[in-house]
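Write out the 3D structure for:
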Amino acid sequence: MNNKRFAAWLLLLLVPLLILAFQGRNLQFNSDIRSMLPHSMADELGLAAREQLAAKLEGVNFLALGHVDKNVAIAASLKLADLLAHTAAFDSIVLQRRHQGELLVRSLFPYRFVRLSKQQQHDLGQQNYQAIVANAQAQLWSPASAVSSDGIIADPLFLFSQQLEGFSALGEASLDPHGYVIRYQHDRYWVLLELQVKANVFSPSEQTILLNAIDSSLRTLAQPYPELEALKAGLLFHADAATKQAKSEMSTIGLASVLLICMLIMFFFRSLRPLFLAIAALFTGLVLALAVVSLCFEELHLLTLVFGASLIGIAIDYAFHFCAEHAGATKSATYTLKQITPALLLSASSTIVAYLAMLFVPMPGIRQMALFCALGLLGSALALYLLAPVLAQQIPAARWPQRSVHLRLQKRWILLTVALLSIGLLQLNTVDDVRQLRGHFPILENQQQQMAELFQNGQANQFFLVRGSSAEQILSREQALLEHLKNAAGAGIIARAWGLSEVIPTLEEQQLNQILVNQLYLKLPVLLEQMGLAGDVGEQAKYSFAALQGKTLTPESFLLLPSSKLFSDFWITHGEQQGAIVSLFGVKDLAALQQLAASTSGVDFVDPVAEISDALSFMRGLTSRLLIGVLLVVSLVLCWRLGVVNTARCLMTPLLSVLVALAAVAWTGQGLSLFHILALLLVFGVGLDYALFYQFNHGNFHRLEMATSLAALSTLLAFGLLALSATPALAGFGLVVLCGIACSYFLAPQFNRSDFRRKP
């Protein structure tokens, strides 16, 4: 019989191991908390805009090298760019940007007569040609001017030179003559490098490749340039910090839990058999959970592994109940198993149901964690049932008093608890801001802030999406929006904004510009004479001007030009729909920007952080209703099995534990979030587990107290460490479970042991 049980356990273990061996190469790890959230509910164009901007912001990371000597800072930056290029880790490394400006000039020069600046439009509209001539003379006789004879003929009044001044918002004007972006701050010259990558920066394997390339290159520079300083900014560095934190917490929580539980087992049971049984049950559950998750999901989230560490604190309960019941007993292990089977079956099934209920939450990460824990518990319970008669036929008597401890709640403590509970619940509020769920990394955040101040490149996650039935309408609406945003910048709401209509006027405006220039060129011979340009320059200039008549610029034609790579992120095309993105820098007042979008036709204000927070709020409400649904379903099942009175007694423990955990959230100053509600599901399942074991106990209270004490202690140790996590979402989860489990342990005997309810 035992051989059949052992063979069945081997089959239960080997099949998942084979699946893992097959799936292991394809299984990817992910540390992006956004992958735990539901997909955006935006329309297709809005979704395309969000994905396009997210890909841009995630794929670009920055390094800045600082030194007291400007030439040393430049030389070190050149060396660093060369070292990084040899690693082939990044798709592109941008240090000198001079060629970008040259590409832009060559691309836009043919459109110089339809892209007039606002000042040029004003001067030509007022026929103030002398202002045009004065500007042209200043350009012509400037010592820095490099005017060729062909350039004079193509643009004798230097209209294009004045138009380029409008590109200062792009940062091109901040380049030094050699194309470097250099700033001076705190007695150091800082040179900016832009590292572009298409790889998923949330993948730990990709993070290792990219960060190793950077770290090894910086170490190489440390010898020739010992006084060099480096600043880092970008999602790659934050994702790497989050991954390292998650791995550290996972190993700390998991390792500490295992060691403490091993010590508990060895001390109380004085035998290795309970330890082997517990380890085999846990290992089977973990392998089964990993194997099925690898089949159902393309990526395994690191938070799932952190959350899965809690599995140790729950699955070990099954082994504790068996060993406590069997320790020092003279009857067989199979007999002991039959004794605890009713409680074990109801307990395991209720907890697994609580986890499986999370599968109805439309969040990929939550589903993955729920599936992982439900299967882990199922595997552990099956392994215990199959292996207990094989590995633990005999267990020595445990170090535990033979008499049960009768704890009783005194009235004053009950009144104090009720008062604290009531006050706490009245103070409870909700917080769904996703920024409170992420970890904080002060060094990286300070460096990012310093680089934003240095290079004025703090592009915000928020942006405006401009829609329209045609490209002309989109550009027209964007121009109107940018005028409003200039006023907003003046009011301190934002630092600045930029959109493609800064480069591409509407066709209507281009036609008006062409008319103004036509009128200007009628006066060209006189104006050139004032400038001292004699000969046939005027005639040749007119021929050059005539050759460009009717040449207009559209978004479609512009994005085909060599410089389009710089601007492709500002125009969205999805099927027959088109739209434009207006980027924002230095956002100070989100509410004002939302109000502006609401009052502007065809304009959406997109705030990805707020959208994620809204989704979390929706999920919190949905999960709260799910908790109520689980309570109703479990109540019906228990009523069918135990009757109304006993069901009410069993439910008092988990219900009061949930209320105490909610009050603890309020007393610790935390707002109730989705992760607290998910923890309440777990508290309800485990609290019911304790109540059921007391309900089905027929007299061996000291054994039951030993089992629940060890189970609660192991769970509290595991979740106590989780409550210390630096990730607020996990810390909140741990706090709820910590308080809820402690309360369940104390209340279960109060409501489910009949001898406790009798007066002495």
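The radius of gyration is 35 Å.
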